[in-house]
């Protein structure tokens, strides 16, 4: 390139104005009495010279660096939750901020190093994110400035602002969908897991989804036909749980799966048994994994709103007035896996 970086003085000289006047125009400060034509000369000079403001110098004056730290456990390399970062990036860009992203992979020593490196760069705040919705142990180092938890909560004594998917309302919508189709006394559920439901450091979603399902069914006098337990929310466990359901004397008319991966297994078990979806059984689920729309028939599921959550986290951080949890709705993706009960 060979060319020295243009300075504010260069811009002022080319525009025929003082350095102070050029600075006020470029920084959008009110109170200048310059003509519109003078403003245009400053902007034209800045563009011609390729002038970029000295962010470091500005940060010394304003104590703001227009940067946000995004610290996660394993979000960044997880395709399923990449929307968290996309939403945060978009919101940061719209607010003229840059996102600095680091992933800890659960390594406490590296996490400490990464956080200190971010803070050394005088970030304006920290978004601390988790892939799975759960309660986090928050590193003390990030508590000295603005913090928003993303897809996570903190120990109750910290009362940090946090952004969460509205899993309880999603559970209610799933139950309402089946009730609206006429399912009542033969609704089964697979994915019960006592560890996920009782330990908030493992999952907040399981208990909230179950609460939404049960309360909505109870309001119309309906109880679940059977609740199948699974050691993990994986396809093989959904397959095994569905096989057990089909061995019962009373076959369910609908299956609620606690996540889409369980539903993938359920689809396989039902297909092997010669049963059709939704002709013989309806299936509905949570998360909206990318594969859900490719199943045949497409799987109806309550979507995790990752992009909206990432966006909300940036907005709360920069606005600085958030208290407690902020719940983001989980939209129901209505596909072809739910219909009225057979017979």
TrEMBL record:
Segment forming the signal sequence: none
HTH lacI-type domain span: 6-62
GO molecular function, one term: transcription cis-regulatory region binding
Xref: Pfam families: LacI (PF00356), Peripla_BP_3 (PF13377)
Record-linked SUPFAM superfamilies: lambda repressor-like DNA-binding domains, Periplasmic binding protein-like I
Keyword DNA-binding: yes
Record-linked InterPro entries: HTH_LacI, LacI/GalR-like_sensor, Lambda_DNA-bd_dom_sf, Peripla_BP_I
Keywords in alphabetical order: DNA-binding, Repressor, Transcription, Transcription regulation
Keyword Amino-acid biosynthesis in record: no
Listed name of the protein: Transcriptional regulator
Species assigned in the record: Micromonospora craterilacus
